[in-house]
Amino acid sequence: MPELSLQVMTEADIDAVVPLFIEHNNKYEDCQYTHEKAYKRIHQVWNREDSLCMVLTCEGQIIGFVTGFFEQYDDLTVYDLWEIMVSHDRQGQGLGARFMEMIEDKVKKRGASMIQLISVNDEMHHHFYGKLGYGNCSNLVLKSKFLE
User: Fold this and answer.
1) What is the pLDDT of residues 16-68, one digit of tens each?
2) What is the SS3 assignment for 66?
3) Which positions ≥6 away from 80 have C-beta within 8 Å?
């Protein structure tokens, strides 16, 4: 297994992870992100109060990233995992699972007792998160409305 390193994302790192974001979303999620829109989406979370955004490196090269932030509730602190990606040429090697374990360890040490995320509702995502012990939330439902 290659040696992985997790580092806090700097503002300069955002430009380095935008191509990963665009490749994944435009090629595999049928999105149409531009560099400007992808940068803004990542920067919005990076710049948020109590954010924890990190890059995953292997042999000095950024191969993945995570964005998220801590939320305080009355009875617990939650890490809202907003985006997580591993370069497609590195997928299928167990790196995503190792990355999630590293994130879980990092946010637990920072006081979180839960990680929550919104996932694409497809078999690939159900399988990946399910094998890591993530289940569907039964007490909340995502609501949305298109504005005309």
Assistant:
1) 999 999 999 999 889 999 999 999 999 999 999 999 999 999 988 999 999 99
2) strand
3) 68, 69, 70, 71, 115, 116, 117
How far is the CA of 6 from the CAs of 63, 134, 145, in angstroms? Answer: 10, 22, 37
What the block records as the tokens of 36 is 């400007």
DSSP class of residue 122? S
Residue pair 22/38 in contact (Cβ under 8 Å)? The answer is yes
Sheet of 114-117: strands edge to edge? 4-8, 54-58, 61-72, 77-86, 114-117
pTM, entire model: 0.91
Q: Tokens 């109590």 — which residue? A: 50
| No. of helices (H) and no. of strands (E), the chain | 4, 5
51 closest CA partner among 33, 70, 37: 70
Residues near 3 by beta carbon (within 8 Å), at least 6 away in sequence: 58, 59
